[in-house]
């Protein structure tokens, strides 16, 4: 394992990783705005939204942001049009936005393009006023131009990347090759969000056993890292897959070598490393679920106020969505625990959690869709009692939440579902904040009080074609 600590850093070279520190931090009286940790009380709820790219692909063109007060957020007569009045965050495609604990900072690592991999930090000043602190960090040499990253704990960002390489007998390429072995590699970078710079990085072979890799087990994508309460371990979600080693390779239409998949028998897998050293990588497995836990655009692991980590599986897939528990005392799965959303809802349909957020007292909020049912739905969940309370929002059955595949023969166009792209549920005090806009349709910001289970329809959200609001911070 190759681990490095960064005390200082340079910016600009394709081989350098670090922070742009040529400007001294100061207050807002001039120069670079104040940065550091989020030590202020909350003033704003920031809303983000995505718009189409030049080819018309919904939500794929970039991200806008607009900040409103909590009073404005709760006012159903207050109107927000982020597309006309918002601030454009730096990113060639949909930005993967993160926020600080009180909403006074936004963080983003640009996704794809010339500046893919560049970290930016913004001070939230209300409405379209987001001030770039100009503390740029180039993560591309470690994480590539399409990085997977989150705020793993307040003030600590963690970016991750994984890939796998298959070895064939006689190193044969193309179709008809015989599988021999596979090696999966992981990279991790830790970012100080209060004083933006990469403080440590590592690269290592993911520690499967020799028998497992020869049986086709591999991990080609990792995501959603989170720190435990003691800040001694990082837990990273994995897309665990398995090649059917008995079937020779094929090729796709581009001529690339392909392999047939087999069913994994290992269960949901999490990659664990020590913090802050990033040493001692190991894999832990759940016996309660067999879905991936790498998520998609939204954080699926949350630290409970009981000290345990609650981890969603099957997020953004069509299937029976589970939430697992990683025990604070053992730092491994509690294989006596399983929250099953389908069971908790008493649903006849399979369900998929599209996003979820923990608040306190064992309570969380899930955004979910149902197989074969149009729309996007909300439910409060009690992780201790393993119950779910379905909530009601206006226009919840709109297909723009769930989306659909194209049917060329029937002349039916595809619809990208808002919930499939959703990034963040806002939390402030006892309330969840959820912008609800079906693809291309106006909607509202909804405020859910976790104690009273009341749902308040708040600010109006003006939308546009091929666009949707995708986060609150």
Structure characterization notes:
This protein is mainly beta and 473 residues long. It has 7 helices and 33 strands. The chain is globular, with a radius of gyration of 22 Å.
Structural features:
7 helices; 5-stranded mixed sheet; 5-stranded antiparallel sheet
| Global outline | globular
This entry's quaternary arrangement is single chain
Task: Output the number of helix runs.
Answer: 7
Q: What's the number of extended β-strand segments?
A: 33
Name the helicity range: under 10%
Structural class: mainly beta
What is the average per-residue confidence, as pLDDT, rounded to a whole number? 92
- Give me the side-by-side strand order of the main sheet: 1-14-13-12-11
**Which sheet architecture does the biggest sheet show?**
5 strands, antiparallel
Strand content: 35-45%
- Low-pLDDT runs of 5+ residues are 7-28
Question: Cα-atom Rg, whole angstroms?
Answer: 22 Å
| CA-CA gap between termini | 36 Å
């Amino acid at each position: 394992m190759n681990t490095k600590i960064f005390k200082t850093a340079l910016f600009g070279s394709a081989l350098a990783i670090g922070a742009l520190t040529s400007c001294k931090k100061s207050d807002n009286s001039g120069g670079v705005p104040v940065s550091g940790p989020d030590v202020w009380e909350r003033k704003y709820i920031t809303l983000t939204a995505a718009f189409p790219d030049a080819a018309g692909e919904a939500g794929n063109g970039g991200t806008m942001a607009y900040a409103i007060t909590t009073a404005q957020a709760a006012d159903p007569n207050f109107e927000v049009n982020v597309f006309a009045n918002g601030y454009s965050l730096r990113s060639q495609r949909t930005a993967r936005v993160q926020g600080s604990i009180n909403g006074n900072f936004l963080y983003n690592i640009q996704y794809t393009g010339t500046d893919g991999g560049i970290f930016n930090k913004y001070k939230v000043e209300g409405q379209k006023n987001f001030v770039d602190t100009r503390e740029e960090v180039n993560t591309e040499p470690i994480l590539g131009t399409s990085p997977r990253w989150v705020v793993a704990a307040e003030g600590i960002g963690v970016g991750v990347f994984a890939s796998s390489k298959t070895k064939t007998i006689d190193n044969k390429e193309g179709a008809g090759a015989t599988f021999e072995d596979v090696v999966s590699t992981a990279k991790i970078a830790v970012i100080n969000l209060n004083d933006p710079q990469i403080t440590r990085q590592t690269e290592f072979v993911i520690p499967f056993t020799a028998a497992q890799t020869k049986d086709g087990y591999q991990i080609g994508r990792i995501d959603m890292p989170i720190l435990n309460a003691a800040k001694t371990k990082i837990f990273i979600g994995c897309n665990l897959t398995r090649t059917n080693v008995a079937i020779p390779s094929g090729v796709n239409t581009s001529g690339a070598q392909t392999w047939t998949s087999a069913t994994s028998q290992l269960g949901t897998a999490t990659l664990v490393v020590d913090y802050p050293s990033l040493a001692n990588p190991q894999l832990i497995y759940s016996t309660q679920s067999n879905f991936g836990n790498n998520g998609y655009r939204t954080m699926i692991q949350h630290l409970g106020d009981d000290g345990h980590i609650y981890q969603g599986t099957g997020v953004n897939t069509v299937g029976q969505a589970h939430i697992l528990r990683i025990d604070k005392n053992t730092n491994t799965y509690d294989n006596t625990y399983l929250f099953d959303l389908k069971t908790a809802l008493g649903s006849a349909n399979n369900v998929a959690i599209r996003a979820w957020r923990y608040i306190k007292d064992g309570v969380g909020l899930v955004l979910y869709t149902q197989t074969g049912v149009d729309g996007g739905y909300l439910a409060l969940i009690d992780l201790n009692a393993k119950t779910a309370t379905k909530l009601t929002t206006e226009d919840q059955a709109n297909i723009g939440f769930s989306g659909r595949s194209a049917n060329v023969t029937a002349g039916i166009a595809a619809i990208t579902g808002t919930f499939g792209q959703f990034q963040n549920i806002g939390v402030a005090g006892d309330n969840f904040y959820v912008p609800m806009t079906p693809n291309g349709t106006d909607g509202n910001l909804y405020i859910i009080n976790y104690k009273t289970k009341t749902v308040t329809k708040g600010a109006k959200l003006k939308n546009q074609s091929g666009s949707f609001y995708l986060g609150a911070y």
